[in-house]
Every structure is written in structure tokens, then in C-alpha cells.
Amino acid sequence: MNHPTEPESNPVVAHEPTDANTWAITRFGIGLGFCVLLVHLILWWLFAHYSSREAKLSPLVPELIKTQAPREPPEPRLQGNPQADLRQMLQDEDSVLNHYGWVDPERGVVRIPIDRAIDLIATRGLPRFTASAPPSAGSTPDARSLGETAPGRAFGETSQKGGKIRKPGK
Known about the structure:
Strand order of the largest sheet: 1-2
Radius of gyration: 43 Å
Oligomer: single chain
Number of helices: 4
Helix content: 40-55%
Structural class: mainly alpha
């Protein structure tokens, strides 16, 4: 195949030499970089000046105050490392729920792992409790004696003999 050595000339395709002034864009970029550098140097000097001025004007803290000052703020404090606290809490729960241990050694109360408790209940069943003597008819509290209000009455109103309603404090 024969390749032409000269580029093809296409009169329809062209560019304008006045599209962008590369010299002006380059000068602007250099000037902008210089301004940014100058601002940073001025701010660095300004912060150094204000730091030294503050150090000169601030009174020295006496050693007695430094020794008596509390090291930690008072309770309640924020968690310093929530992930470590959560990890520790989960380990504590795991040790309580999945291991044997004493609840009350004086009374002989122990805890057993959950898996063992489930196995015991599956083999033995739930414990059966004997019912005590049934309560007498007059001793059962009704809902109104526990703080609920009867329909149509305001809270705290009670009825008296004769159908009259007594308001509290009267």
C-alpha cells in the first residue's frame, strides 16, 4: 500500500489562530500561582506573630493550679472509643450468657449457659407451679381501683352512695 508523504489538504477543515491566547493564559496561571504563594506566606507570618504575641500577654498558670486541676471532665463523659466499648460490652454479655457462673454464692444461685438451659427445658419441660387458694370475690381489684377512670367521668372522680359524683378536694 502506498502512503502519501504529504498531508492531505482539505480546505473545509481548518482552525482559527485567534481562538485562545496561550501566552495570556500562561501569564495568568503564573500570576495566580504567585498570588496564592504570597497569601500563604503572609498568613504564615501573621499566625506566627499572633502566637508569639499571645504567649507574651498570657499569664503563666501557677503550678498549684496545674496539680489541682482535674485530669478528666466530670461525669457524664463522651465515649473515648465507642468501638472498643461496644466490643467490651459484647464480650461481657457473651461471658454472662454462654458460661457458668455464680449469681449469688450465699444462696447457691448459679447461672447456666443459654444452650444448656434450652436443652434442659426441652428434655424436662417447663416447671409446674401449684396454684394458691383462689382469691375471694371481694378481694379482686377492679380496673377503677388501679387508676383507670370509669366511662363518662373525669380522672379522680369517685361515686358515693346515692349516685352523686364527688370531685377530688371537695
